[in-house]
Design goal:
Elements: H1 19-27, H2 32-58, H3 83-88, H4 90-95, H5 103-121, H6 129-147, H7 149-160, H8 170-177, H9 181-204, H10 212-227, H11 234-255, H12 271-297, H13 302-316, H14 320-330, H15 343-368, H16 372-380, H17 385-400, H18 402-415, E1 425-426, H19 427-435, H20 444-472
Helix pairs in contact: 5-6, 5-7, 5-11, 6-7, 7-11, 8-9, 9-10, 10-11, 12-13, 12-15, 12-18, 12-19, 13-15, 14-15, 15-17, 15-18, 18-20, 19-20
C-alpha cells in the first residue's frame, strides 16, 4: 500500500528574526558583549548629546551684533553658546584681513573654480554634450549677472570656449594652405602675430608686475600646440583650461594690480580662503610630483633612483613644521642678494614638496601591486616606457590606491593650520586672533566648535567623494 506524502505548510519565521526586532538582534544584540557595548554606547550618547544640543541650539544666542546680546547667558544657571560672536566675525573667519570692498574677487575665483571643476569631478552628470554646454552657458550667465561683464567674459573664456576648440584644427588648415608656399608662410605668420597680440593684450593690463606676461605666453603657446594636434574632445579641453587658464584668472583676481584691480598683498590673505588656497594648490601639485618621484624611485637608472630615494626619505624623516621653517627662513639665505620670495609662495612650495614625498610612497604601493604580466603585455604591444605607464600601468595603480591618496589629501588639508607658525593667518590662526579681541573675550568654545565644524564638512565631503570614486572605478571580477 502506497502512502502519499503531503508536505505541511511553511511555518512563519521566528518573531525576533524579522522586521525591526530582527535588525536589532542582528546588528546590536547579536551576542552578550555586543549588547553590553550597545547599552554603554547609548548611555554615552544620552550623557553627551542632549547637553550639547541644549548648549548649542536651545539656550544659544542667535540675534544681535554686540557682546550685550550674550550677557544674559549663564544667568540663573542657564548656559548657552554665543553664536553672535561667530556672526560678527564671520567675514574675518572666511577672508582674513582681505579688504571688504575686494572680497567679491575671492568669491568670483571660488565660483569659477567650482563651475570649472564640477563637470570634471562628476562626469556622469555631464555625459551629454548638450547638458555640459548648457551648464557652461548657465554658469557664464550667472557670473555675468552677479559680477558684471568683465567677470562674465572671463567665465565665457574658461567655461564655454573649450566646447568650440574641438572644431578648430590648425593642423588641417595649415595642410590645406601648404599647397602654396606663400600661403602657408602667410598663415603661420598670421598665427604668430595673433598669438603675440593676445600675449601683449593680456600683459598690457599689468602695472609693475612682470610675471603675468611670460605666464600668458606659456598659456598661449600651450593652447596653440594642442590645437596643432589632432582633434581633442571638449572634456580634454576642460582639463587643459582648468590647469592653465584658471590659474591665470585666479592670479589676476586674487593678487590684483591689473586691469584696474587694486593690489592686495598676501599678508592680508587669511581665514578659510587662505586654507583653501594652500590646500588646492598643494593637492594639485603634490600628486603629479609624487607620481614622478614614485616612478623615479622604481627606475633602473642609478642616479635618478638615488636622488628620488634621498629626497623622499629626507622629507619623510622631518616634521612639516621644520620644512615650513626651512622654506620661510632658510630658503632666502640661498637666494641671490635682492631676490625676494613671497612668504605664501614659500609656504606653498614647502607644503607641496612635503606631501609629494608621502604621495610618492602611496603611488609606489600601487605600482608594486600591478602584476608583472601587465608590464610584459604592454612591452609585447610595442609600447614605450611613458606610453606604457600613462595608458596601462598608472591608471590601474592609481585606482588601487584611491583611499591612500585621499587620506594624504585629508592630512594636507588639516595640516594647513601649521602655516600659522610662519606668520600666515589661516582659519585656525584667524580664530585665535579673534579670541584675543578684548570685546569678545570668553567665547573660545564657540570659535573652536565653528572651526571644527567647517573642517569636518570639507574632510567629510572629500571622504565621501573618494568612496564614490572607488565604486566608479571598481573592477568586477567574476
Amino acid at each position: 500500500m502506497t502512502v502519499q506524502w503531503t508536505p505541511k505548510p511553511d511555518l512563519p519565521p521566528p518573531p525576533l528574526d524579522t522586521g525591526f526586532a530582527g535588525w536589532l538582534k542582528k546588528n546590536l544584540f547579536s551576542s552578550f558583549w555586543n549588547g553590553l557595548l550597545t547599552v554603554a554606547g547609548l548611555l554615552i550618547i544620552l550623557a553627551t548629546v542632549p547637553p550639547f544640543l541644549r548648549w548649542a541650539l536651545i539656550n544659544a544666542a542667535w540675534v544681535g551684533d554686540s557682546r550685550e546680546a550674550c550677557i544674559h547667558l549663564g544667568e540663573d544657571g542657564i548656559s548657552g553658546a554665543c553664536w553672535v560672536f561667530i556672526k560678527v566675525r564671520l567675514g574675518m573667519f572666511m577672508y582674513g584681513f582681505y579688504p571688504d570692498a575686494e572680497r567679491w574677487r575671492v568669491n568670483l575665483a571660488m565660483v569659477l573654480l567650482a563651475l570649472a571643476a564640477l563637470p570634471i569631478l562628476m562626469p556622469q552628470a555631464f555625459e551629454k554634450l548638450r547638458t555640459a554646454l548648457g551648464f557652461a552657458l548657465a554658469g557664464t550667465i550667472a557670473v555675468f549677472v552677479l559680477f558684471g561683464p568683465g567677470p562674465g567674459a572671463a567665465a565665457a573664456l574658461l567655461l564655454v570656449l573649450p566646447f568650440g576648440l574641438p572644431h578648430v584644427r590648425l593642423k588641417a588648415i595649415f595642410e590645406k594652405v601648404d599647397a602654396q608656399p606663400s600661403a602657408g608662410l602667410a598663415a603661420r605668420a598670421a598665427a604668430l602675430a595673433l598669438a603675440g597680440g593676445i600675449v601683449y593684450a593680456a600683459a598690457r593690463g599689468f602695472e609693475g608686475n612682470a610675471l603675468p606676461g611670460p605666464l600668458a605666453g606659456v598659456f598661449i603657446a600651450l593652447l596653440l600646440g594642442l590645437m596643432l594636434l589632432d582633434r581633442a574632445p571638449a572634456a580634454a579641453w576642460q582639463w587643459v583650461f582648468l590647469f592653465t587658464v584658471y590659474p591665470f584668472i585666479a592670479y589676476v583676481l586674487l593678487m590684483g594690480d591689473a586691469y584696474g584691480l587694486a593690489y592686495v598683498e598676501t599678508h592680508l590673505w587669511g581665514g578659510m580662503f587662505l586654507t583653501l588656497v594652500i590646500a588646492v594648490i598643494g593637492i594639485a601639485t603634490s600628486l603629479p610630483i609624487g607620481i614622478l618621484l614614485a616612478l623615479g624611485r622604481r627606475s633602473t637608472m642609478p642616479v635618478t633612483k638615488t636622488l628620488c630615494v634621498c629626497f623622499i626619505e629626507l622629507i619623510r624623516g622631518v616634521p612639516l613644521i621644520s620644512v615650513l621653517f626651512m622654506a620661510s627662513i632658510m630658503l632666502p639665505l640661498f637666494l641671490p642678494e635682492g631676490a625676494h620670495f613671497d612668504k605664501l609662495l614659500r609656504a606653498l612650495i614647502g607644503v607641496s614638496l612635503f606631501y609629494a614625498a608621502y604621495m610618492a610612497e602611496v603611488v609606489r604601493g600601487g605600482l608594486q601591486a600591478i602584476p608583472r604580466g601587465q608590464y610584459e603585455a604592454a612591452e609585447s604591444l610595442g609600447c614605450g616606457y611613458w606610453r606604457m605607464m600613462g595608458l596601462i600601468i598608472l591608471p590601474q595603480a592609481l585606482r588601487l590606491v584611491i583611499p591612500g591618496i585621499v587620506n594624504t589629501f585629508l592630512g594636507l588639508f588639516k595640516d594647513t593650520t601649521l602655516v600659522a607658525v610662519i606668520g600666515l593667518m589661516d582659519m585656525l590662526g584667524i580664530v585665535k586672533t579673534a579670541l584675543a579681541d578684548t570685546e569678545w573675550l570668553g567665547f573660545p568654545k564657540e570659535a573652536y566648535v565653528f572651526a571644527a565644524a567647517v573642517f569636518w564638512v570639507f574632510c567629510f565631503g572629500m571622504s565621501r567623494y573618494s568612496m564614490h570614486l572607488e565604486k566608479r572605478f571598481q573592477v568586477k571580477r567574476h
